[in-house]
Design goal:
- The structure holds two protein chains of two kinds.
- Chain A is built from eight helices and no strands.
- In chain A, helix 1 packs antiparallel against helix 2, helix 2 crosses helix 4 and helix 3 packs across helix 4.
- Chain B is built from nine helices and no strands.
- The chains are: A mainly alpha, B mainly alpha.
- Chain A: It is a multi-pass membrane protein.
């Protein structure tokens, strides 16, 4: 056993880049997936609606940890090799897609029917209707909850520690095993997440208040 | 891909899985009851407590909501024993869940209390209603109705995220799955079945909550 020193501090802080990297992957992938899910949920085709609904139900109705386990422990059994990066990335992207998709579906459906009808009356086809009329308005409403959801994504990356991916939480575990100073170590780990998440929480709350004021006018 | 699915090992362990499921339900329900108690005190402190107490409650909420549950769990499980408090993984898991839910539920309950227009409370008093009647009919019931959906979905989120307590082996459903996995090596089958159990639990509870809403809270709003 050794005491907690400067190299340990550095090790944990440096692991933050993997937390940030994984969060970005999850968020970017989840943005694309979420858009597909949201469009699927409101699609005219029954098949698309059904598929999107099942996807959302499955990923919102089961623990993220088990989704991660299924990909990390399950797929190698099927003969598909996965390393922690891929497993964590795929699980987080799928999970984020489901949640963002549902948030955005709500935002899209909040656009008044008249706007849709007007777009149709103007003879706009599906792509133009969505791209030029519905989505620009919906994205304004969606901005605050999306920023708020980023906090959940960042926190969710901590689960990758359980499958051995060395991000902040896992780095904390490693240092704790070597130094046995859990109070310092896990306070530091919590502080790093807090520094990453709190500004986003504040920003989301501010945007929400501004929106509420704009709507009240 | 010519993998042979073998579920018999998993299904042979059904008493263990059942026990794990029961532990997960029990843990979630206990944590919810205790967490709601924390949240009621927290919401009172935030809406009408003295200023220093408001700061404390705010700090608690922000700290919990902006750090991962796993880290909170590690903190309670590893750091507190280092301070001299020895306790089981189960107790640490329960406390972490209570503390976590308490922060989210405080905000939900506060929003519920603040959703009652002051004028209605004043109107109740003007109608010569007793204080407890004002609380019961004008504040509690409408507030409960307003926060019911948020509170119940928070419960389901808590139940699903309780899978994380398996990281400290707190004898929940996911811990059972992890043990089975290391004995039988049928990871894919086990995690599929266990994910299915969580899914059914989430469905069952949301159905139950909807039923309760229909029976007890589904009266028309008159505003």
């Amino acid at each position: 056993m050794r005491t907690f020193g400067y190299p340990d501090l550095l090790f944990i802080i440096e692991a933050a880049r993997w937390t940030i990297g994984l969060s970005l992957i999850a968020f970017i992938g989840g943005t694309i997936g979420g858009l597909l899910v949201a469009l699927g949920r409101i699609a005219e085709s029954r098949l698309a609606r059904g598929a999107a609904t099942v996807f959302v139900q499955v990923f919102q109705g089961t623990p993220l940890l088990l989704q991660l386990f299924l990909i990390f422990f399950g797929f190698p059994v099927l003969g598909i090799d996965v390393n922690p990066w891929v497993a964590a990335g795929v699980a987080l992207i799928l999970n984020t897609s489901a949640f963002l998709g549902e948030i955005w579906r709500g935002c899209i459906q909040a656009i008044p029917r008249g706007q849709w009808e007007a777009a149709e009356a103007l003879g706009l086809h599906y792509v133009a209707k969505m791209r030029d009329v519905v989505l620009p308005q919906a994205s304004k409403i969606a901005l605050a909850p999306t920023v708020g959801y980023m906090v959940q994504v960042i926190k969710g990356t901590s689960l990758a520690a359980i499958i051995g991916f060395t991000e902040v939480t896992r780095a904390g575990q490693i240092v704790n095993n070597a130094t046995f100073q859990p109070l310092i170590v896990f306070s530091l780990v919590a502080a790093i997440y807090f520094v990453l998440c709190w500004p986003l929480s504040l920003l989301a709350a501010r945007m929400e208040r501004r929106q509420a004021r704009a709507l009240a006018r | 891909m010519n993998y042979q699915f073998q579920f018999q090992d998993v299904f042979a362990a059904w008493p263990l899985l059942l026990q794990g499921t029961w532990m997960t339900i029990q843990l979630s329900l206990t944590a919810t009851v205790l967490g709601l108690a924390v949240a009621i005190v927290g919401a009172w402190a935030k809406t009408s407590g003295p200023q220093p107490l408001r700061w404390v409650v705010n700090a608690y909420i922000e700290l919990i909501r902006n750090t991962p549950f796993l880290v909170q769990l590690f903190f309670f499980f590893f750091a507190l024993p280092a301070l001299g408090l020895r306790w089981s993984a189960h107790a640490a898991a329960l406390v972490a869940m209570v503390v976590n839910l308490g922060a989210y539920a405080t905000e939900i309950i506060r929003a519920g209390i603040e959703s009652i227009p002051r004028g209605q409370i004043e109107a109740g008093l003007a109608l010569n209603m007793k204080r407890h009647q004002v609380f019961r009919f004008i504040i509690l019931k409408p507030a409960l109705k307003a926060i019911y959906p948020a509170l119940t979905s928070q419960f389901i989120l808590l139940m699903l995220s309780s899978a994380v307590v398996s990281a400290i082996s707190a004898d929940d459903l996911t811990s059972v799955a992890a043990n089975l996995q290391s004995q039988t090596f049928r990871s894919f089958e086990i995690y599929i079945v266990v994910a299915g159990i969580y899914f059914l639990l989430a469905l069952a509870f949301s159905g139950l909550f909807r039923l309760v809403y229909q029976l007890a809270l589904n009266y028309p709003d008159r505003r």
